[in-house]
Amino acid sequence: MQKGDWQLRLMAYLDDELSPSDRAAFEEEMARNQEIRAEMEKLKTVKDMTKRIAFADLEDADWKQYWRGIYNRTEQTVGWVLLSAGAVILSVYGLYHILQDVWLDTSIPFVIRAGLFAFLAGLAILIVSVARHRFHTAKNDPYRGVTR
Amino acid sequence: MEHVQEKAWIEQTMRGDQEAFGHLVTAYSRPAYFTALGILGNRDEAYDLSQEAFVRAYKALDKFDLSRPFAPWFFRILRNCCLTFLSRRKVHASLDELRESGVEPPAGDRFDPSLLAERNDDIDRVWRALGALEDDSREIIVLKDLQGHRYKEIAAILGIPEGTVMSRLYHARQKLKTILLEERAR
């Protein structure tokens, strides 16, 4: 048996993941091979030690708050989505009416109308650009979360 | 847990029943918290990130394949949350090293033996040695020895073949053995 092969079988043996026939075959191999036996003893000691680690449980009050915390976060996510969607709809509606009422009103001087159009177009470009930049940064910035 | 019951809760959640999702959270909150604790070694971070994993699972539930069990899918999300957090923490740590104003105090209870239910010198030593392992080595030992997952489940959580699980576990235990021996020699 190659070393790489028995190393994997040794893990499966230690973790009780071998079928009964494979287990018997491996035990035969182990009986013949001193190197496998020595390695098994060492790794079994390590496994026995890690198996003894058990975490202290949290307080009951923490577990009671656990679901509440998740519920609040999911609720806030829904709230933000609805708020954002509403803001976009209202902004588009408002812009449409401003443009219709002012841009199409020939009684208002052209310079004022052009100025308003440029102002709103610039504002829209800036909002989209900043939002895109923030979104990109939030996803890719390796330094996010770093306290400077 | 029965797959049929889980599936029913997921379907109810997808129809807007948040209480059904609460049942899933109750069923998996402890394994999620303890898995995160094993990877992160910090109580507050494990509490926060295991909750975050549930929120992400909730948001992504429409992408979940109902013919499959919930646990491997959920633990994959939890694992990603923890590993992303760890990679950011490393950036934070390396920036700290650049600071000229001396060493910062250690963060919270990271791999402090006070997190453990039962303690003695041997257990404390193993827990500290686990904390000294690389993230992927520690993760596989946590999934196997502390959480008791079978190879098949670990393979599904990590998205790797069972042979790779065995190989990683072998090398992780070797490293742990080396760290423990080195510590004993000191």
Quaternary organisation: heterodimer
Order of helices and strands of chain A: HHHHH
What is the gyration radius of chain B calculated from CA atoms?
Answer: 18 Å
Instruction: For the record, give the distance between the C-alpha atoms at the N and C termini of chain B, rounded to a whole number.
Output: 46 Å
Order of helices and strands of chain B: HHHHHHHH
Total helix count of chain A? Answer: 5
CATH homologous superfamily descriptor of the largest domain in chain B: RNA polymerase sigma factor, region 2, helix turn helix motif
Helix content of chain A: over 70%
Largest beta-sheet characterization of chain B: none
CATH topology of the largest domain in chain B: Rna Polymerase Sigma Factor, Chain: A
How many separate domains of chain B?
2
- The second-level CATH architecture of the largest domain in chain B is Orthogonal Bundle
Throw out a few tags for this protein.
heterodimer, A: 148 residues, mainly alpha, 2 domains, 5 helices, elongated, B: 186 residues, Rna Polymerase Sigma Factor, Chain: A, Arc Repressor Mutant, subunit A, 8 helices
Overview of this structure, please?
The complex is a heterodimer of chains A (148) and B (186). In chain A, 80% of the residues lie in helices and 0% in strands. Chain A is an all-alpha fold. Chain A folds into 2 domains: 3-51; 60-140. In chain A, helix 4 runs antiparallel to helix 5. The mean pLDDT of chain A is 86. Chain B is an all-alpha fold and 186 residues long. Chain B has 2 domains: 1-110, Rna Polymerase Sigma Factor, Chain: A; 113-186, Orthogonal Bundle (Arc Repressor Mutant, subunit A), CATH 1.10.10.10. Chain B is globular. The model of chain B is unreliable at 103-107 (pLDDT under 50). Classes of the chains: A mainly alpha (148), B mainly alpha (186). Chains A and B meet through helix 1, helix 3 and helix 4 of A and helix 2, helix 3, helix 4, helix 5 and helix 6 of B.
